[in-house]
């Protein structure tokens, strides 16, 4: 009698936001995350997040961590693990029945104003969770050129250029996501999300010929747009980091 495998198990590029806890106050954490979800529910509602406790002076006890995890759930996000840290963090994750996540795409920094004029959208710095499997290029050897994607990127799709720039000649729909470890060049309309410097390259830039984005990010610093400022809507723009400020200007 023939049997079939019950499932396939594969690892791939997955978008996970990081909630970096600055103080072990579950009520304050819930209030802050609820505000984020209200500001952009299409990005943050039921987003997968990692809880990062590495910036606390002392690792909280199990009860406090459990309260922090419940605060994340109450705010409408879904905690999926703890950020990798010390051996004590590993032991804590084991007791909590959670995995340790060693690497993720962005960081959460609510106390920093990482937004530059002229846009008016509220700044924040987690990366939203991807809704579909990524189209991942193989690791690039030194000197390999940019990855090209011709045609539209449809809602729910994600295109990721690992270790290189990404050039897109087509429209990026609402709910679609393009990611690159280097720069991103979009020769078309950007209505979805574009994230450059995904592995932390703060010198990466984003160039867009028709700017109508939901979100742009560089090295984890990002901004959400509920409404595009009139002086940027439909314009050719470039995005870059100036220190910890994400700058956007017309070309």
UniProtKB/TrEMBL annotation:
Please name one Pfam family that this protein belongs to.
MinC_N
SUPFAM superfamilies given in the database record: Cell-division inhibitor MinC, C-terminal domain
State the source organism's domain of life.
Bacteria
Which parts of the sequence belong to the Septum formation inhibitor MinC N-terminal domain? 10-79
Q: Which InterPro entries match?
A: CAP/MinC_C, MinC, MinC_C_sf, MinC_N, Septum_form_inhib_MinC_C
Alphabetized PANTHER family for the sequence: SEPTUM SITE-DETERMINING PROTEIN MINC (PTHR34108:SF1)
Show the NCBIfam families listed in the entry. Answer: minC
Function of the protein: Cell division inhibitor that blocks the formation of polar Z ring septums. Rapidly oscillates between the poles of the cell to destabilize FtsZ filaments that have formed before they mature into polar Z rings. Prevents FtsZ polymerization.
- Family note: Belongs to the MinC family.
- Protein name per UniProt: Probable septum site-determining protein MinC
Which source organism does the UniProt entry give?
Dyella thiooxydans
Q: What's the source species' lineage?
A: Bacteria, Pseudomonadati, Pseudomonadota, Gammaproteobacteria, Lysobacterales
């Amino acid at each position: 009698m023939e049997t079939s495998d019950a499932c396939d198990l594969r690892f791939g590029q997955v978008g996970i936001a990081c909630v970096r806890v600055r103080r072990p106050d579950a009520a304050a954490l819930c209030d802050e995350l609820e505000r984020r979800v209200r500001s952009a529910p299409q990005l943050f509602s039921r987003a997968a997040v990692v809880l990062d406790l590495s910036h606390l002076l002392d690792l909280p006890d199990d009860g406090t961590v459990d309260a922090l995890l419940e605060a994340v759930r109450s705010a409408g996000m879904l905690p999926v693990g703890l950020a990798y840290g010390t051996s004590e963090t590993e032991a804590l994750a084991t007791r909590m029945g959670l995995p340790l996540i060693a690497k993720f795409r962005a960081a959460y920094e609510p106390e920093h104003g990482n937004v530059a004029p002229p846009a008016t959208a509220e700044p924040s710095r987690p990366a939203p969770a991807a809704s579909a499997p990524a189209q991942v290029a193989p690791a690039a050897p030194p000197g390999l050129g940019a990855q090209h994607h011709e045609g539209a990127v449809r809602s729910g799709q994600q295109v990721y250029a690992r270790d290189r720039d990404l050039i897109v000649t087509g429209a990026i729909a609402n709910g679609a996501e393009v990611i690159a470890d280097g720069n991103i060049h979009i020769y078309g309309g950007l209505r979805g999300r574009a994230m450059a410097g995904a592995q932390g390259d703060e010198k990466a830039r984003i160039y867009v010929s028709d700017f109508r984005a939901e979100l742009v990010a560089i090295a984890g610093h990002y901004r959400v747009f509920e409404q595009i400022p009139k002086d940027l809507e439909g314009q050719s723009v470039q995005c870059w980091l100036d220190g910890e400020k994400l700058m956007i200007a017309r070309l």
